[in-house]
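Support reply, case 0932

Customer input (verbatim):
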Amino acid sequence: MAILFNHETQVFTLQTLNSAYQMKVAEYGVLLHLYYGRRIDDCDLSYLIQRTDRGFCGNPYEMRQDRTFSLDYFPQEYSCFGIGDYRADCVKIINADGSCAVDYRYRSYQIKKGKYTLDGLPALYAEEEQGETLIIEMEDHHTGMKLELYYGIIEGSDVITRAAKIINGGEREAVVKRAMSMCLDFNHDNLDWVHFYGKHTMERELERSRVIHGRQSIGSERGTSSHQHNPFVILCDPMCTEDSGDCYGAGLVYSGSFLAETEVDQFHQTRLVMGISPDQFTWMLNPGESFQTPEAVMIYSGNGFTDLSHKFHRMVSSHLLRGPWARKRRPVLINNWEATYFNFNGEKLIHIAEAAKELGIEMLVLDDGWFGKRDSDYTGLGDWEVNETKLGGTLKGLAERINGLGMKFGIWVEPEMISEDSNLYRCHPNWAMRIPGRPGNIARNQFVLDFSRPEVVDGIQDMIFKILDEVNIEYIKWDFNRSISNYFSAVLPSGRQGEIGYRYMLGLYRFLENLVSRYPHILLESCSGGGGRFDFGMLYYSPQIWCSDNTDAVERLKIQYGTTFGYPVSSIGSHVSATPNHQTGRITPLETRATVAMAGTFGYELDLSILNDEEKEIIKRQVKEYKEHYNLINRGDYYRLSSPYGKCRAVAWAFVSPDQEECLFCGVMTCLQSNPDGTIIKLKGLNPKKTYQVGEQVYTGEALMYGGILLPVPKEEYQSWRYEIKAVK
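Our regenerated output:
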């Protein structure tokens, strides 16, 4: 069993293949957290909690004269606001009498085969024999408010998941002001805090610092997980490296506003909480009603960041991605956006498809501008009717012509948005989020539709499904090109306006679930101006996410480097684009652009008609090479060999097959130098006892990993290398 309960010591021990998590029912039903780390048995580690009388640290009333038991410094499993724990809390409830306190105490537990699911929310899945569920039931005896803490164990993958359900078991209404998905306490502050910050076109840059006294937090108030911060963080030993050291990864399976917060308290203890952002959140609970938090995922590794990343990559591939495209090879595509922007017609698209077919590309994706009155980003969003005048015919006819070339066909959509200059807005102006009496906040000339309303979701869904029923579409790029502001729903009463953000996500997830269930053959790629909604929640529905609107190969080195700490290469949408690059103006070699894009789902986004014969031959070879290495890139183990933040003049990475028989080494020289030093990159993941062929040379695994590869002196700026490395039979 993965879940153990010792009735004598009242200790729960959750075990995975390499880790363990422990908590204890202490005096008067207080649930204490004891341990998370390397696998242990069910020994009671509560002896590590120092009991002493500490000034200004109050005690539960039941303790009477015992001043050595305090919620203010004891490690909590799910901390409550207003009852003596002054640290970052998990739950805050306003009771009917106006008081703001909840005191959850242990009642009972259930252990079930298989992993739990969450109604209306994405969550990891597992076969019954792979997973196990623990539900701990708690109650506030004064108000009748109940709590269910969910723990999912996927033993073989070292995964522990967390979620909570708050239930109003009382007789009067209550308002939930804060509801975190997880809490994790450490009995020390010898930790670093790693998170991934950024902005539009420069997402998921790595930042590492020591945890400090007081609170540090990252999060989003934008209605999405955002470009600015990602709902995936790591706490680690200060000496932790790619290859050694304790590290704890935590990610939220949610795509809306979130909070991840650490706090070092007065006694040098560290707490991490993660969940829905409380700043724009309230949820009214009438008697008998419940509120479900999103799921949080935790993985521990004692072997450094690489091992932690591999565990998260396998978790996503095996327990989060769904449908045929989770395992199926994805097509190499050409997107027309940077080739044409809004300036296209049907014949121009056919010419792009014909040219792409000759190069081995397998799919044409028609981006923005095919619907409504949409020749710029000022109009047309919400009018999901085909602009047959612009296309010179029906969308079905265009798709059939492209299919006739032996190419697949896909489209871009942005279902959550509306333009003021649209028929939909003129018919349903209150479908847009706007606060009455205020002009509103425009971003990219558009408003956000109120997806907290089922009738709005259904109205947009019907329009888009009508097109999908008529046209052979095999790919959808689902975009979201602004942050949410001006939160207001025309149908919710004033006391429930704080529920909009969460209700919005439920509406979005319902739409996505309907889409993937009805059209399982469609490859769905999520996008939010690139990587503004790159999270585990969206990966439950879309097996790949457009990593960034920045297609500059050199800047992508940092973007994709940070992304790989929590997310697998198979989820990273990456294309070869034009040079000079449309975002930065940088000029990089065509081979380098391909080297970087191959560390992703791979495709092209440029005007094929202006390429010369040599460039076309290069692209033809690149496409062939990517297809040949597809399984290695998308199913092998990914290794970060050098950092774009480090002193090495080259950024390098590698893909290694599970049997260590094959490796693809990739490197980009980022800094030219006169009379240069030698640049040596040490490989990882090979079998030191095997012999490998690299080009015409033969090396032992020991030589490649402990000695390394000496890169040639570059002949041009941003030169790249791709080395196929195979074990000698």
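We compared this against your earlier run and they match. Two observations from our side: The first strand starts at residue 3 and ends at 6. The chain has 14 helices and 39 strands. Please reopen the case if you see a mismatch on your end.
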